[in-house]
Design brief:
With about 180 residues, the chain is α+β, with helices and mostly antiparallel strands. The chain has a domain at about 45-120: Beta-lactamase Inhibitory Protein, Chain:B, domain 1, CATH 3.30.1450.10. The protein contains five helices and four strands. A hairpin with a 6-residue loop joins strand 2 and strand 3 (about 100-110).
């Protein structure tokens, strides 16, 4: 047995109708922003951020404990290079350029001997780098005409009279029922 000709033609009409509806739905995407269908990328932060202010506190001859108090725990402290601590920091945020900084401190006889690394930003500079730049929008005109100012006149006749608030009761009912 075969399907009737009317059934096959109705299936064709249905397929054409679905195709047309699908194409019509795509035409509404003209005003969609490019970022609408971009997948979410989580913020990835690795390491310890060391600021310019922290770097300026370091002095040659400081003990390891003092350096750890200023900079925190190093990201890399190798067993093979016990006199070297590496601090690395990287952050990747969607819409902002990746930030990467590194700092290496070298010790000699448990005292700070040498400091190597990148030019570090201050805390405020770093915070400014994490903000996605925005195009300035159109600002409204902040000017009032004389007619606009007259709407907000403060003359006593134009102020509405508010009735006085009811006085608070002097006594309050008990919070718990009186026991007998």
């Amino acid at each position: 047995m075969t399907a009737s000709p009317t059934f096959r033609s109705s299936c064709r009409y249905l397929a054409v109708a679905l195709l047309l509806f699908g194409l019509a739905g795509c035409s509404g995407l003209a005003g969609v922003n490019r970022d609408t269908f971009r997948p979410y990328v989580p913020e990835v932060v690795q390491g310890n951020f060391i600021s310019k202010e922290q770097r300026q506190v370091l002095r040659l001859g400081m003990a390891r404990v003092q350096v750890r108090e200023v900079l925190g725990t190093p990201l890399v402290a190798s067993l093979f290079h016990g006199d070297r601590w590496d601090y690395a920091f990287s952050i990747q945020r969607q819409g902002v350029a990746p930030q990467n900084f590194r700092l290496t401190v070298h010790f000699k006889d448990d005292l700070l001997d040498r400091i190597e690394g990148d030019d570090l930003p201050s805390e405020s500079e770093f915070a400014g780098r994490l903000i996605k730049p925005r195009a300035p929008g159109k600002l409204p005109v902040l000017q009032a005409s004389e007619e606009d100012l007259k709407k907000f006149s403060t003359t006593p006749a134009s102020r509405p009279v508010n009735p006085p608030a009811p006085a608070a009761p002097r006594t309050y009912p008990p919070l718990e029922p009186v026991s007998r």
